[in-house]
């Protein structure tokens, strides 16, 4: 089966950009099924590689290789081995890591996180859905996971014409998947948790903040989810307070705090409302994290997202002691570091303080940012220190 | 003396932005001398603070404080103490650091670098020029420097109506100012060197690269200046090769290599020409740095700068071994991380390789990035690892 792309897209595809958008497709052979692997040709003639094609999908073409190679179990095994080797020696102090980060690892549409011996898998497009059994075999063989579950409940699937799908894949998946991060034992409920189970991508930031909190001081964890930041801060001796509107997540946090013999205060509710209440209670903190959900799935959402960052940061800065630190994170590809800085600048002005930008951080090594996929950079954080 | 600013600028100045541009000034009392300290008022009436005013300057108003405080030696001493406290415990392993980073430290127009007991000072505007004696007394008292020299030879001065000025300020300034960085002894000639003497701002990146080079492998230092990167790499056992067109800088590098008992290869010439020659010699390297001079002093310069980055990175990537790392730096405020990534992306495509973005780094703690001064962020680097 053959798909031809326009001259304008050829340069990008030759530069290893993995996506062919609707306007890039010149012509597709008839009879290609949704998610079929196709041979991709340039308008001028030459073979460019192979990829999944789904005419009706949000992104019709997803490149897999520039070679004439078979896309089979052996192919997926090679890609998984490459991904593991890319991470080698770089994820330490934990038995949980992202094994496949979709396009960034040359496996468009596959996200796989390993927690101890339990694998969490997400299939995002029609192509991987078609190859589900080869991919699962490859993952089982290369990761050695003894159990796996699926969390293909992402909005992306509907744009691909696929149903949401969750469930057990192989082995004996426990009701609680447990793993460790440094000296903390963490867990989640595989079929109830957000996303693929746990936010592994904030690992380095949790450690960063843990290194900055002071014993006995307040630590404010805004949009805490299951409280990874809070648990680390509490372990370092801070009085952590977690805010989230997800009651199930806060229950998990409560259980983890108990299991780790630390204490974390909980406030269930809308983050901005709770911040307002804390402010009126004249609470103060030595450190804080503002890590909201995506907020901007499209470029148009940026102004609204910035307003939320500004309000959250204003209130957090007001409650921070001088010298205290605030980490502001975004996991939205469309929100840039400059947007966070802008929002923080307005917030500092509102809070009548100044701050040093102590650092800017990005996603950890198991969520690689590959040069050929600009979209693979998504997690950006700024660390402010109030003057 | 009184200056009134327009309503539109009031919000920025209240938000601690230190610059009042030409269009921001509503009205200035007559008789204000170039660089005089003035009281700044909002169009609507209230007092906003004090700053230097130079009607003919590129930036007429430079805010110093939001209070009714005297701008005298005691004021400058307080600001220097604040700057030193901001850096406390954060600059280790060296006896050289930037003490004042102009606006970022609340001292617009003053840059001061301390090398052991010798201070390098730069005065950039008419305001600090008027207060030169108070500022020098304050610097001497707070830093304890036994000797100092001036390097006010910056283009910014001419836009302020000031002459270039260099020379000795106090004490016994040696012909060679020596200092250490980790286990390296470094030096420069105070009145012949570029800028204020030495690029302290690349300190953390030098250490980063030193940690990544492998013994016996090639290290390519493009736009080396006096070779800080090369000396660190050579100390770690790499075969360092430095490229610069400044013969005096390469002589200094040669002397420093001898003093530190390491060997660094030198190539004098235009960086891109030398890279081309090295490529035709089929040289290979395990690590490389591409750290050109500013390249973009205005927004209009960005496209040209990107072309230079792209060509340099293309050649460097071609000569890098798989797994090798390339650091690309810009010290231009106008060039963003995204511009470096764009240039690198095109370069990887030209060099027919892919790369992981292993990290993004910014200036070190003695060159603070303050939230209220967006312009204070200037040094940005991306670290690529060739696949």
UniProtKB/TrEMBL annotation, chains A, B:
- Give the highest taxon in the source lineage: Bacteria
The UniProt keyword set, sorted, is: Cytoplasm, Methyltransferase, RNA-binding, rRNA processing, S-adenosyl-L-methionine, Transferase
Per its UniProt record, what InterPro entries does this chain match? PUA (IPR002478), PUA-like_sf (IPR015947), PUA_sf (IPR036974), RlmI-like_PUA (IPR041532), SAM-dependent_MTases_sf (IPR029063)
What the entry lists under SMART domains is as follows: PUA (SM00359)
Q: Where in the cell is it found?
A: Cytoplasm
What molecular functions are annotated in GO for this chain? Answer: methyltransferase activity; RNA binding
Biological process terms from the Gene Ontology for this record are: methylation; rRNA processing
Using the record's annotation, list all stretches that form the PUA domain: 1-85
Give the UniProt family note.
Answer: Belongs to the methyltransferase superfamily. RlmI family.
Q: What is this protein called?
A: Methyltransferase
């Amino acid at each position: 089966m053959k798909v031809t792309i326009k001259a304008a897209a050829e340069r990008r595809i030759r530069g290893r950009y993995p996506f062919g958008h609707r306007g890039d497709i010149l012509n597709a052979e008839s009879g290609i099924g949704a998610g079929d692997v196709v041979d991709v040709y340039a308008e001028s003639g030459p073979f460019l590689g192979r990829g999944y094609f789904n005419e009706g999908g949000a992104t019709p073409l997803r490149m897999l290789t520039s070679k004439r190679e078979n896309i089979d179990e052996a192919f997926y095994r090679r890609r998984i081995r490459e991904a593991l080797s890319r991470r080698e020696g770089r994820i330490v102090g934990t038995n949980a890591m992202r094994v496949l980060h979709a396009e960034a690892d040359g496996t468009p549409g596959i996200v796989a996180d390993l927690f101890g011996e339990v694998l969490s898998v997400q299939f995002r497009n029609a192509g991987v859905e078609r190859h589900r059994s080869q991919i699962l075999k490859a993952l089982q063989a290369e990761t050695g996971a003894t159990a796996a579950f699926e969390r293909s409940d992402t909005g992306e699937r509907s744009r691909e014409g696929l149903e949401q799908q969750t469930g057990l894949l192989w082995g004996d998946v426990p009701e609680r998947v447990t793993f460790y991060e440094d000296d903390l034992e963490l867990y989640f409920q595989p079929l109830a948790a957000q996303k693929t189970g746990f936010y592994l991508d904030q690992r380095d930031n949790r450690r960063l903040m843990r290194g900055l909190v002071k014993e006995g001081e307040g630590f404010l964890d805004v949009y805490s989810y299951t409280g990874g930041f809070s648990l680390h801060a509490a372990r370092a001796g801070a009085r952590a307070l977690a805010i989230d509107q997800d009651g199930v997540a806060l229950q998990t946090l409560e259980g983890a705090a108990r299991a780790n013999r630390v204490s974390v205060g909980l406030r269930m509710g809308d983050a901005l409302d709770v911040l307002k209440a804390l402010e009126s209670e004249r609470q103060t903190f030595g450190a804080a994290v503002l890590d909201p959900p995506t907020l901007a799935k499209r470029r148009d959402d940026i102004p609204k997202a910035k307003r939320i960052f500004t309000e959250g940061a204003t209130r957090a800065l007001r409650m921070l002691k001088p010298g205290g630190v605030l980490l502001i994170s975004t996991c939205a590809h469309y929100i840039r570091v400059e947007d966070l800085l802008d929002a923080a600048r307005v917030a500092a002005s509102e809070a009548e303080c100044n701050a040093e930008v102590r650092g800017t951080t990005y996603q950890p090594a198991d969520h690689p940012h590959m040069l050929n996929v600009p979209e693979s950079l998504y997690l950006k954080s700024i660390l402010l220190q109030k003057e």
